[in-house]
Design a protein that fits this description.
The chain is α+β, with helices and mostly antiparallel strands and 132 residues long. It is 33% helix and 31% strand. The strands form 2 sheets. The chain has a 4-stranded mixed β-sheet.
């Protein structure tokens, strides 16, 4: 199944993402895991989600910040998100199948879009799916 077919499962995937939220993260979600103390103070929240864009379903990271982030801040958040996708949040999410009428879905975000206020930086690959 490709990313355009995933659009039909957007709501189900968003519900599964909500279930991944840990109480210890509060409303800051993944921002609590930032290593850079200065960036941790600037970034209010970093919330994984999915969104349809150009007819395909993409993994996104919604970032809310206190003020405008510099390009180096954005680059660091993108690097942190990449790590979370491969070895942290994303790895765990991919391992938990999502029940749908036709079976189970295993969703991964090999690369994603980051949404930061009014800016969006798109990386080359949409969400991937393994249907079981």
């Amino acid at each position: 199944m490709d990313a355009s077919e995933l659009c039909a499962y957007q709501d189900v995937i968003l519900e599964a993402i909500k279930r991944e939220h840990l109480d210890t993260e509060g409303d800051r979600r993944l921002a609590v895991y930032l290593d850079n103390a200065m960036l941790k103070r600037k970034a209010h929240s970093m919330k994984p989600a999915v969104a349809e864009w150009n007819g395909r379903l993409w993994g996104v990271l919604e970032v809310q910040s206190y003020g405008r982030l510099s390009q180096s801040d954005l680059d660091e958040i993108i690097e942190e998100w990449s790590g979370q996708e491969s070895d942290g949040w994303g790895e765990g999410f991919e391992q938990r199948e999502i029940a749908v009428d036709s079976g189970e879905l295993s969703v991964s975000f090999p690369e994603a879009i980051m949404i930061c206020g009014a800016c969006m930086r798109a990386l080359p690959k949409p969400a991937a799916l393994t249907e079981r």
